[in-house]
Specification:
Blueprint (H helix, E strand, L loop, with lengths): L8 H9 L9 H15 L3 H16 L2 H16 L2 H14 L4 H8 L2 H6 L2 H11 L19
Helix pairs in contact: 1-2, 4-8, 5-8, 6-8
């Protein structure tokens, strides 16, 4: 995506179709990749960057960690809507913290009171693929006070 950023969507899709191995993929997978490219193309730059950074972070994980992450995503998606929203909001908050502060927050009394051990583990696993945006101007709270 980055190397073709100056191209139109149609040009990017054509370039993807000409990538080695693309035509050997099953038709459904090919269409899924083209649809993903279209979704990325239509996102604002900040959204696109976050998605691509997360994909890169997932690629850097060991296969077992990637499977843990997938399992955590599945777990999150099966939670009751209210808990799912609460965990999703917490991910948005915690992804702004450096990894060591994320872990400190998850182990804080406030988070222990708010989330079950399983939910905190799920949060920690999901945050493995959330790259820390290293450059920020705003000061950060390490975690909610109890």
């Amino acid at each position: 995506m980055q190397s073709h950023s100056g191209m139109s969507l149609v040009q990017q899709q054509h370039a993807l179709q000409n990538e080695p191995g693309f035509r050997e993929l099953p038709p459904q997978v090919q269409q899924n990749r083209l649809n993903t490219l279209a979704r990325l193309y239509n996102m604002n730059p900040q959204q696109r960057t976050r998605i691509l950074d997360r994909a890169e972070a997932l690629e850097r994980l060991a296969p077992a960690q990637r499977q843990q992450w997938r399992d955590a995503v599945q777990s999150l998606n099966t939670m009751p809507p209210q808990r799912k929203r609460m965990l999703a909001g917490t991910i948005v908050e915690l992804r702004e913290l450096p990894p060591e502060q994320r872990q400190a927050a998850l182990n804080s009394p406030a988070y222990r009171a708010q989330f079950s051990p399983y939910e905190r583990q799920t949060l920690g696993t999901l945050l493995m693929a959330e790259p820390y945006p290293a450059v920020r101007n705003a000061p950060r709270m390490p975690y909610p006070e109890p």
